Amino acid sequence: MISRDEQLESGVRLTVEPSDAVAAPGERLMLACGAPSPARVTWRHSANAPPTRDHTLSTSDSFRKQLANGSLVIESMSTTLAGQYQCVATQDGVGTIVSRIATVFLAELPEIVETVRTVSGSLGAGALLPCALRAPPRLALRVAPAAPERRVYGAAGKTHTQPPLLKLNVTWLKNGSPVRMESARISLTPSGALELEPLRPHDAAQYRCLVALAHAPAKHVAGPEIDLRINTDLSNVETPPRFIAVPQPVTVIEGASVTFDCAAVGNPKPEMIWLNNGVAIDLNDLDSRFYLVGSGSLRVQSARALDAGVYTCRAHNRLDSTDHSTQLQVLVTYLSREREPKVSALFREVTAPRVTLPGGAVARAHPRGDVTLRCEARGRPPPAVAWLKDGEPLNPNSRDIALLDGTSLRIQGVLRVDAGMFQCAANSAAGSAVAALRLLVLPPADDAKQTRNPNPNPNPSSHFPNSTHDIFDSLLSGGPDPTLDPMPEDLDFLGETSSAYTSGPDVEYDETDADDSFHATEGLDLDELGQGNATVVSAPRALRAVIVKHRFVTLSWEEPEVRLEEVTGYAVVYKVKGSERERIARGNPQRHEMNVASLQPNTTYQFTVMAFTQHSHSPTSEMIEATTAEEELTYGPPLDVHVEALGPHSARVWWAPPTQTHNGLASAAPPTRYAVYYTDEETGRELTQWAEGTSATLSGLRAAAAYRVRVAAAGGAPAPELRARTPQDAPAAPPANVTAVPSGATVLIHTFPSPLLYRVSRISTKN
């Protein structure tokens, strides 16, 4: 249980988030969202891609209205109002977060899949005529006027959430006329199939199913004609079972019900048995979600993840038995830590993403320090992970801001503007999930030494609480802040392998300062220390890079020429050239050299050094630059790289693995991870996405934008750069305030869609 203080510290949070929904044209729909005061809630909508800031709904939108509690009401559903919705909560001085993306479906007629065109039956036996409906995988179907669902009591009937329900009416025509249902002989199964038993001579005819939306029965889609043929020759000859209808593979969203149609004939009449993964299902349990409908079809009510697997319909009589198996796949929309161990890998073929934050909902960092925001994302297929800062996509650059293992975010050289709300967002074809945390950038810890040193100096005259010595000395004598990331050496960082590391210089360090040169400072704020006092201590001299490798640089300098006070330590300030993100490494006064580690290959860094005394500090030394070496490549470039836009905000990239040899050397094993680098040509911002296989889907792209894309295996050379352009986005709402001005034989139409786009089109008219 999170305390109230922890809730306040964790920043903005959502009390309720929108869920997927389906609505018929003209129907009213509400999407729930709420955040505790004083946060403000707004909404975004995009037709076919994750919405961005550019898709924010206007408060004057005439088609949608936001309620006082933050929920959004769609007054009259239409095609242009379907798509992906997201609510946004903002709190001044804290930050912004976004909800999971909820998809609003427009109720549309499903596709009818053609199965059989001829069904043969015997007089007195049974027949089953299929109406194979195919609905979108994230919707559940309910067919009327089929028999109502069985009432299941207790926990057996409960699921985590109910999926959007598409209600349909199914009718059957016999030689063009409606079939009259007879409860004792002719019935409609929950899948929409027509079952007749026993067959009579006049049942032979041409049959066709008609499917309509429940709210609009006049508009329908017709299935293929099925010719029912009846053998009127009665025979007392015993025959083994023979299937006249067999179950088909089905994929449903968790919580939806499914019917496996199955029928068989034989003499004696076959008995129908069902098995799940080879185990017989108890069809006599009245409180079970599994039960027979019709003469032999199986109904699975409110399917769960554990229901997925192989289902076998078995028909047997005293002569023989016959089996037919099929597969049920359940798209899991929610998988908690408690449920996950119970859902084996065999059944967890499709699961919606789940995001957790191992480090908690609050992270802390000091200016110029480092912090890693830990995130774990799971799901099948593996979701793509992106980070948001205050509701907007963050752009890792592989230098100062980078993804670790494709999920966690590392920020090196923290700035005060980094404070705010961060979200780890996971997206896949199975859905989306987000988790939010707040990054607090701490003020300088001037009293760090007093709070950490168990034996403070008892002589008050010798203590200067505001001196630079106190700040610097706290770095040497105080232990690291356990809430901060101590710049770990992550072997998986950016796909490095053991061959990509070069050992450090062969320099002996004293045990007392071996750790001092490799950790970010705590509480040292150079902005508040001023320019230094060269009359007390001058800048260190002759700063130079004595060793430059692809992952570290060793610096050396000479002590200051002016030293009116004893030097108590040195601090090296460094950053990537052109970046504002400075980092600091510190060392003790006895050593005039430092090994700066955790650098990026083929990157230019800028270095300065400054000295500290008891009461002052020096100006910074003259800046030098050093460019790290190229990475030692293990693999060649990927082959046959392709890229294509999937829509206004996404693109697909795929490729073949590189050859097993590079620079004449054979690779130990093919690569398992690839980096996809894509750059917006207009803004110049480069982003990176990691992929476990040989394809990746890039999301969050700008509409009508050109991107440069290149792919490289982890620790390998990149393939040649490709270029792709995303298409234009659809308007966020229907046109409004349409005016027409006649102009000879044409009409000039001015339209002003809400809220930002407009379109001018010319149409021809006839006099």
TrEMBL record:
| Taxonomic superkingdom | Eukaryota
Give one Pfam hit by family name: fn3
Q: Would I find Glycosyltransferase among this entry's keywords? A: no
List the Gene3D superfamilies: Immunoglobulins
Q: Where do the Ig-like domain residues begin and end?
A: 12-103, 110-222, 241-329, 341-435
- Which parts of the sequence belong to the Fibronectin type-III domain? 539-631, 637-729
Which intervals of the chain are annotated as region Disordered? 446-513, 717-737
What does the UniProt keyword field contain? Disulfide bond, Repeat
Does Disulfide bond show up as a keyword for this record?
yes
> What PROSITE patterns does its record include?
FN3 (PS50853), IG_LIKE (PS50835)
Q: What is this protein called?
A: Uncharacterized protein
Q: Which species is listed as the source?
A: Iphiclides podalirius
